[in-house]
Amino acid sequence: MEQARSTISKIFNGEPHTYTRFNLTQNMEGDTSQVEMKLSSDVDEEVGENGVGDNRHHHNSNGRPYMVQKLQRTPRNLCYMACGVLLIFIIGFLIGYMTNKKKELAPVCASSISVVNDDIPRETGAAPLMDWDDVKKLLTEKFSAAKLEKVLSEFSHSNHRAGSPQDESLANRVLQRFKDYGMKAWTDEHFIKVHDPPAVGYNTFVFKNASEERPRGFLSYSAVGSVQGAVLYAHYGEDNDFQALSDRNVNMNGRVMLIRAGKISFAEKVANAARMNASAVLIYTDPSDYNIKGDIEIYGHVHMGSGDPYTPGFPSFNHTQFPPAESSGLPKILAQTITLDMAKKILDQLSGSKRPDKWEGFSKLGDETDVITVNVNNVLTEKRIHNVFGVIKGFVDPDRYVVIGAQRDAWGPGYAASTVGTSVLVELARSISDMVKNEGFKPRRSIVFASWSAGEYGSIGATEWLEGYVSSLSMKAFSYINLDGIVTGLNGFKVAASPLMHTLIENTLKEVKNRDGILYKQFAKDNFETNIVEPMRMDSAAYPFLAFSGIPSMSFRFSPDNSNYKYFGTMQDTADNLNAATSSQVPQLAETAGRFAGHIALRLVHDHLLQMDVMKYYKVVRSYVTKINGRVKEVLQMRPQLLPKSLTVQWLISATGSYSRAAQSLQNDIQNSDLEDIEMCRLINDRIMAVERNFLSHYVSPRQSPFRHILLGSGPHTLKALTKHLDALKTNNPEANAELFLNEFALATWTIQGCANSLAGDIWSLDNEI
C-alpha cells in the first residue's frame, strides 16, 4: 500500500492541493476493514466550513472553463490521472490474484500433512493406547526368575554397611543400570550422623560380679555411659507387659530391663522402658521366637523415629547449614543387645517373684539383689551416603509419580534385608523400561525407582529425601511401594498398607499367580483383612512416607508361616540361610513378589483415575470414634469430676459424617466423570491424593512429632492415643491429663473435618455441620 501511495504521488507531481488521503482503520481481528478516501476538494470544503476562506465562486483571470478551474487540471493532467487510475487497478488486480492463489494452495498443503499424520498413532491423553490385560502379559514376559538369578548374584555382597566403599560401589552399579535402561538417573548425597560400636574398647556388662561379657552386637543411638541396677525381666517390653508389672506393684525405678526381641521394634521397647524410669535395657533373642544359635549377635537402632536424629525435620544435604538439634526420639537410657547364651546366664540366676502366667520364657522376674553393671561406649560417626534414582516419565501427567524403593545397605551380608529387594528394584526398572521403549506401553504417570542407603539405622536415606522435598513430594507422589524384606519365607504372605490401597492390593492378589495358583486363594483364604493385612511397623521404610509425608504406602513380604525371619539384624542373613528358609525358591518367590509390586505400580500409572478407595478410611475413623464415644461415657460415669459434663462426642461424629458424605460425593463424581476429559481426571486424582496428606495433624510440629498422621502416626495427637488417654483417666492413672485430652480431642476433630473439606473439592461444595 505504501508503494502504491508513493507511485500515485509521483504521478501527480506531488502537488499540494490534489491528493488522495487513505484512512486505515484496523478491526479487532487485525484486518484492514475500512478504507476512507478523500480528495482535496473535500478537504477544502471542510476547511471552508471551519471559517478559513471560501474560493468556490471565483473565476480564474485566464478565463478557463469552470470544470478546469475546479480541478485545476489541463487535458494533459487529466491524461496523467487516467494513467494513475489504471495503474492502481492493475496493482489491485495483482494483489487479489496472489491472495486467491494462496487460498487455493492452502487446502492442498493441509491435506497432504493430514494424510501423513493420520498414519501415526498419537497419545492424546484421553486413554492409554494399551489394554490392561496386554500390560499384565508384557510384565509377565519381561520379568522372570531366570533373569533375577543373575541380578541376585551381581548385587550380593558380604559387607555393605551404610557409607562404606562397598555401599558406594553398589550405588554406582545401580546408577549405571538405570542409565543403561535409558532412564533419567541421578543421585542425592547426604551427610548423616550415626552411632557405631567403639573403635577402641568394647561395650560390656557384668552380672553379680561374674566375668565381664563383651557383646559385639550393638544398638545405634543408645545413650552412652555406665549404669548399675537390678535386673527385671519384662517379656517383650510392650505397654501391656509393663502394665502387668505395675499391677503387681513391682518397683521398676532404676532397673535394668531384660527384654526379648520381637513383636515391636527395639526403639519402642527402649522408649517403653524409659517411661518406667528404667536405667538400661538389654535385648536378646529368645529360642521360642528365633531358633538360632546361642552365640549369634544382633544389631539395630533405638531411635524412636526415622531419619538422621541430628537433623530432625530437615534434610542432611549439608549439615553445616543447620543449627545443632536432636530428635525427641533419642533415648536417654542405655540400650544393648546380648546373645542368647549371655541372656541364659542371667535368666538362670534370677530370683524374685514368679512371672505372670500369660508370659512365656523363664520363671523368675528378678529382685533387687540381681545387680548388673552395663557399659555402652558407642561413638558418634559422620557418614556420607548416596541415594540413587531413575525415572520413567509419564505421557499424560509426568509430574505425578509412584515411587518404588529398596534399601541397599545392611549390617552384614543382608541377603534378605537388602539384596533381594535391590535386585527386584533393578529388574522392575529394566522390564518396565523395555515395555515403554520397545513394546509401545505409555504410562500416563511417572515411575520413580529409588535405591536407599542407611536403612539399617532407621530408614535414614528415605527419610532424608522426604525431608528435603516434602513440600513437592506430598503434592506429586501418590504412592510408595517398599521392597525391603519381601522374601523371608515360603508359606505366609503379609501386607501393611494405607487403607486407601487395600482394595487395589486385594484385586492385585486376585490377578497375580505363582506356581501354586492365585495368591489371593492361597493366602487370603477369602478373608483378606484378617489373613493378610497387618499393622505397619515404625521400622518399615514405608512408614515415614505414610505417617510423615502423607503419601499412601505399602510394604509386603513372603514370610515363614506368617512369623518373622530369624536372621534379620544378624551376620547370618546370607543366601544359604534364606535358601534354607524358602526351600531354595528365592528367585521364584522374588519373581512373584516383583510381579505383585509391578502390577500395583503399573495399575496406578495406567488407569485414568487412581485406584484408591477413599471410603476405606471412613471405616477406620468410625471404628475409633465408636471406641472414643464409649470411653467418654465411661469416664463421665466413673469419674465425672475429670471431664466437663458438657463434653460431647457429637462434634467428632459430625466430622466423621462429613468425611463419609465427601467420600461418597467423590465416588459419585468418579462414576459420572468423562474419562476422555484429561483436566477432569486430574482434578479428581488431586482430590484423592489429598486424603492421606490431610490426615496429618497441622497442629503439631514435625520436629517434635514427625509422624503426624492422626490414624497411623505416633504421638498424643492420634486417635489411638486418645483412646489410651481415656483409659488412663478411667483408672485415675497419674500420667493422665484431662486438659491435654480435651485439647487433642478438639484438634483431632478439626483435622478430620479439614480432610472432609479438602475431599469435597470446591469451596462451595463444603459440608461443615459442626
What does this structure look like?
With 770 residues, the protein is α/β, with parallel strands linked by helices. The protein folds into four domains: 2-112, no CATH class; 132-191 and 382-606, Aminopeptidase; 204-377, Glucose Oxidase, domain 1 (3-Layer(bba) Sandwich); 615-765, Transferrin receptor-like, dimerisation domain (Transcription Elongation Factor S-II, Chain A), CATH 1.20.930. The protein is built from 24 helices and 19 strands. Strands 3-12-14-13-15-19-16 form a seven-stranded mixed β-sheet, with helices on both faces. A six-stranded mixed β-sheet has the order 4-11-6-7-8-10, with helices on both faces. Helix 11 (415-438) links the parallel strand 13 (397-407) and strand 14 (445-452). Helix 20 runs antiparallel to helix 21 (650-671). The longest helix is centred in the first third of the chain and has 43 residues, at 75-117. It is globular. Mean pLDDT is 85; it is low at 1-73 and 101-127.
